Amino acid sequence: MLYRRGGKWWFKFRFAGRLFRETAKTTSKSLARSAERKRRQQLEEGYHGLKKRQAPQTLKAASDAWLELKQPTVSPKTHRIEKTNLGHVLPELGHKLLSDIEPDDISRYQQKRLRDKAAPKTINLEVGTIRAVLRRHRLWANLQPDVRMLATADDAGKALPVADEKKLLDGCADSRSRSLLPAVLLALNTGMRYSELRLLRWEQIDLGRRTVRVGKSKTEAGTGRTIPLNDKAMKVIKFWAEQFPKRKPAHFAFPSERYGAGGDDFEPTVFDVDPETPIGSWKEAWETVKRKTGVEVRFHDLRHTCVTRMLEGGVPLSVVGSILGWSPATTARMAKRYGHIGQVAMRQAVTVLDRPARSRRKRRKRSRPQKKSRVAAPLPKNRATKTLVA
Question: Does pTM surpass 0.85?
């Protein structure tokens, strides 16, 4: 049944024992009749299981519902990233109906973001968020053949030169944050990620076995892996443990700390430590050190430095992958990324084939000489590590 109210056409009908009374939002009777037929069809499809979900009208409405649905199942960091992505997407496409979004709309969005000087990798992440929302409503498959992600540089990062490393460590030692230097040294000697270090607990560190067990990681392969500690890492951890004589296994190794004004020597004083809360971020202290030392480096480059030095020392890529927590697929990708560094180890491997077979058999029977223990290089002598190097 059609009827007019306030200049607009409305329709009213019963379906499955329920009365539906809705506005067609039009002054045209023929359009109102079409709207009524379409609404009946939607109800019939849902009733018979032909259509399980009615998509929200706009991308903004769909995104809000999707973001709320994802929050309990993803990490807070992932949720923030998706929310940031939508902060760029919705002003441009949020008003469009989901069914009206075309590949050309996404292409125009990519071009607009490039003009705004956004990085291709960032734009791809934002398009990935659009894809996730449309997939939830079974609408991405029709667009996928005509949507192309932007090409990105597969950058291997930067390994720190020795001179830059020394300047960086000296700057970290003079930092207001006393935990920055230990964190940087552990990143260089274990290859642990920023978040893995930040959320490290004392119960994950085994000084007797000289190992650290990683907690939740970015990847499934990295979660729970055990990393052996070299002499430098052991020295750092023992020094850091001495700063927390009342520590408990469940406490965070890098706890939240608040600093007060310094004394006569103007050095900051730690006056509030919460061992049950991890440090929020080293970002401010890290950026300050980079500015003062003039070393342009990302925290993640400490991990690249660790990888590069192990490969240069002849460590097989598979072993490096186990320490770093790479999946088999990532290890294969890293073989291309770091292939030029692994040439030393590969050359050493093929030289074995130069020896006669008999000589190789005899060599295997010889007892291997015991390796001499390597003495750890001393850390920079400065205010933050004077106890450590005393």
Answer: no
